[in-house]
UniProtKB/TrEMBL annotation, chain A:
This is Cbb3-type cytochrome c oxidase subunit I. It is found in: Membrane. Residues 26-528 form the Cytochrome oxidase subunit I profile domain. SUPFAM superfamilies: Cytochrome c oxidase subunit I-like (SSF81442). The keyword Metal-binding applies.
UniProtKB/TrEMBL annotation, chain B:
This is Cytochrome c oxidase subunit 3. The chain crosses the membrane at residues 25-49, 61-82, 94-112, 142-170, 190-210. Its main location: membrane. It comes from the Bacteria. It is a multi-pass membrane protein. Residues 23-211 form the Heme-copper oxidase subunit III family profile domain. Pfam families: COX3. Keywords: Membrane, Transmembrane, Transmembrane helix.
Length: 542, 211
């Protein structure tokens, strides 16, 4: 390398990163910023485990025969992919890393309300994660991530109990994080930081936290009942006792549909920040965007039945669930329209965070519109349990959320580490992720519409072309996901030290040095202006 | 209120810290209600689906033990409420005694519950594997499963509550928890105790009184 290693700057010497060098100072830290870094390592680790499982699935699907994995092996692989990606990557991804790091900084606080609880939540997460790794080593679980009864309770022969206990444990990590965020946002806002001056990132995390604390306990009790049925024969869902397997589906989706919004609401918050920063304009219709997060959280609790249109539930219930599911599109649409209006006549620069935000909006719109198709009763009967559904939720949860995750990483990286990365690589990554993602998942819409069922690995040879396209796209996507690790780690040593506000944007987090000191603010700031108070004076920028 | 209690990071004022602790506890209690909510939903659904058989099954439970336990828990909640008042007034001895007394009532509840389980076990009513079943229909077994899951989960919560109360009274009695400055700690643990009580107040009619 010809570049010189840039030594530690004075700002870095007094930053949170240098407040204690020992491993102990990291593992016993109560600093929200350090816990965010711990979470970043942990979720990244699980992202790659879940990604490896996805790679196995895609390799298997290259050919119409089952010639790479056995039937049982395939079931276990996609279950593992789902369990790890949902509970150990997507749900904690943005809230526990960027939410943890940024919420106190954005509202002008020194830490979250309960710093020790915050650390505890990380250890609980690790405990759940370790148990999941045990499940992996012990041979996996074959029920799908949904654990439907009576398959999971009576017939499955994988490690169902260990897997449910792992998710049960990880749920408490979610609950503690949600609780901590709500209390923090209520009680620790700096003087003058009224609810109307909160950055939209904070609003969306508030909505997310409401779901975390209200929905997660339902999942906990539901999975506990499955474990009880397997361990002690307490047959709550056992049809031979008059038990109702559909009750399980109701309870499961009462959590798991809102959980989809746990995964996407933080991403919506990130994109609101990225769009305002890119346009250097106030977000159009602040209150609409803020309350659309709350509306999504509330309506999201009332739509779970759309997963059960073909389960035999009451037709009238299905009609209501269908209507309410379509209604979620209203607040979602408000966000997209308002972002677009924010960009209108903005001074846009094509920085990596902006490209990630655009990638998010594109994929989110596509995933959202196909969500409307799925919410319609008649069409859902046709495409239920096909690749159309798989493509739809991957567009939202992977295309959307992971784009926003990388967008957040590229936007706040200089703040978190104090170093700037090479922008051109960030732009390339954003483009690769967008292209790779579409190549992977767009063919799946077509596959699903043509009748390819999900969770099958032996399929009609006429589907092979589309499956091969999808697998090729997945390889590109895999490369694009690994790419940031090279130039981001490179920046830690060779990157230019970042000024406090490298993007020239508003927000209290940018008034602190990069990286911030342990106590965040020497003096708790007094807020006198709203969020997105553009234009920012040039002398504030550098 | 909490005047004189030390303000910890990240708080700047005592009132802020007090509000945060109360809010945190109430949210936690909300999650507990949702946790039991899943069980209540299941009980309700099966009561609608299998009304007659559920009533039949409910008649096999020991109503008098359930009633006695309800009285015990309600009384213990009164004692906890008085303990909170005492700790606010700074009377250590009274506070510690009341807390121990409520913990003892909790142990009494668990004792009675144990007797009840033992009787049901002998009658072959508990749906554990390897036990001779004495059900007149399959739904009865389902109901007893729900009964065991719900009361068992409640008993776990009560055990945690008892441990909290014993630890708290120890600290109050020794003076390591300074009163009235730290009365909030007693109040928060008291809230948890009340919740465990309230959950029972709903479990009792849902399981015992449906007949």
């Amino acid at each position: 390398m010809t570049e010189r290693h840039i030594p530690e700057t004075d700002v870095e010497k007094v930053s949170y990163l240098r407040a204690g060098h020992s491993l102990r100072s990291w593992l016993l830290t109560t600093d929200h910023k350090r816990i965010a870094i711990l979470y970043l390592y942990a979720v990244t680790f699980f992202f790659f485990i879940g990604g490896a499982a996805a790679a196995l699935v895609r390799i298997e699907l290259l050919t119409p025969g089952g010639d790479f994995l056995t039937n049982e092996g395939y079931n276990r692989t996609f279950t593992l992919h789902g369990v790890i990606m949902v509970w150990f990557f997507l749900i904690p991804s943005i809230p526990n890393t960027f939410g943890n790091f940024l919420i106190p900084l954005m509202i002008g606080a020194r830490d979250l309300a309960f710093p020790r609880l915050n650390l505890l939540s990380w250890y609980i997460y690790l405990l759940g994660g370790t148990l999941t790794l045990y499940v992996l080593v012990a041979g996996g679980v074959d029920t799908g991530w949904t654990f439907y009864t009576p398959l999971s309770s009576m017939f499955a022969n994988g490690n169902v109990v260990a897997a449910t206990v792992a998710i049960f444990i990880a749920g408490f990590s979610s609950i503690l994080t949600g609780l901590n965020f709500i209390v923090t946002i209520h009680t620790l806002r700096a003087p003058g930081m009224t609810w109307g001056r909160l950055p939209l990132f904070v609003w969306s995390h508030y909505a997310t936290s409401l779901i975390l604390v209200l929905a997660t306990p339902i999942l906990a009790i539901t999975l506990a009942l499955i474990a009880a049925e397997r361990l002690f024969g307490i047959g709550i869902f056992d049809p031979s006792l008059g038990g109702d397997p559909l009750l399980y589906q109701h309870l499961f989706w009462f959590y798991s549909h809102p959980a989809v919004y746990i995964m996407v609401l933080p991403a919506l918050g990130v994109v609101s920040e990225l769009v305002a920063a890119a346009a250097r304009k106030p977000v159009f219709g602040y209150w609409f965007v803020a309350f659309s997060s709350i509306a999504i959280a509330i309506i999201g609790f009332l739509v779970w039945g759309h997963h059960m249109f073909v389960s035999g539930q009451s037709m009238y219930a299905s009609a209501v669930f269908s209507f309410l599911s379509l209604a979620v599109a209203v607040p979602s649409g408000i966000k997209v329209y308002n972002w677009t209006a924010t960009l209108y006549k903005g001074h846009i620069s094509l920085d990596p965070p902006f490209l990630f935000a655009m990638s998010f909006i594109g994929l989110f719109v596509f995933g959202g519109l196909t969500g409307l198709i799925l919410a319609m009763l008649a069409i859902d009967v046709h495409v239920h349990d096909t690749y159309f559904v798989v493509a739809h939720f991957h567009y939202i949860m992977v295309g959307g959320t992971v784009s926003a995750f990388f967008g957040a990483l590229h936007f706040w990286w200089p703040k978190i580490t104090g170093r700037e990365y090479i922008m051109v690589w960030g732009r390339l990554t954003a483009i690769f992720i967008f292209l790779g993602f579409n190549l992977t998942f767009f063919p799946q819409y077509l596959l699903g519409y043509l009748g390819m069922p999900r969770r099958y690995h032996i399929y009609d040879p006429s589907f092979q072309v589309l499956h091969v396209m999808s697998s090729l796209g997945a390889s590109l996507l895999g490369v694009a996901y690994v790419l940031p690790f090279t130039y981001l780690f490179y920046s830690l040593r060779y990157g230019k030290p970042s000024p406090p506000n490298p993007w020239g944007v508003t927000g209290l987090e940018w008034t602190t040095p990069s990286p911030p000191p342990k106590q965040n603010f020497d003096q708790i700031p007094v807020v006198t202006t709203g969020p997105y108070d553009y234009p920012v004076e040039m002398e504030d920028r550098r | 209120m909490t005047q004189g209690s030390p303000v910890h990071e990240p708080y700047t004022e005592a009132s802020q810290q007090h509000e945060a602790n109360m809010l945190g506890m109430f949210i936690f209690l909300g999650t507990e209600i949702m946790l039991f909510g899943g069980l209540f939903a299941a009980i309700m659904v099966y009561r609608i689906e299998h009304r007659e058989q559920l009533i039949e099954a409910s008649k096999r439970l020991y109503l008098w033990i359930g009633t006695a336990n309800t009285v015990i828990l309600l009384t213990s909640s009164l004692l906890v409420a008085l303990a909170v008042q005492a700790s606010r007034a700074g009377s250590r001895r009274v506070g510690a005694t009341l807390l121990v007394a409520s913990a003892c009532m909790g142990v009494g509840f668990l004792g009675l519950k144990g007797i009840e389980y033992a009787k049901e076990w002998q009658e072959g009513l508990l749906p554990l594997t390897g036990v001779r079943h004495a059900f007149s229909g399959p739904v009865q077994e389902l109901f007893m499963g729900l009964y065991l899951a719900a009361t068992g989960l409640h008993a776990v919560h009560l055990t945690i509550g008892i441990a909290l109360m014993v630890g708290l009274s120890w600290r109050v009695g020794r003076g390591s928890l300074r009163l009235p400055q730290k009365a909030l700690t007693v109040e928060l643990c008291g809230l948890y105790w009340h919740l465990v009580d309230i959950i029972w107040i709903f479990l009792f009619p849902a399981l015992y009184l449906v007949r």
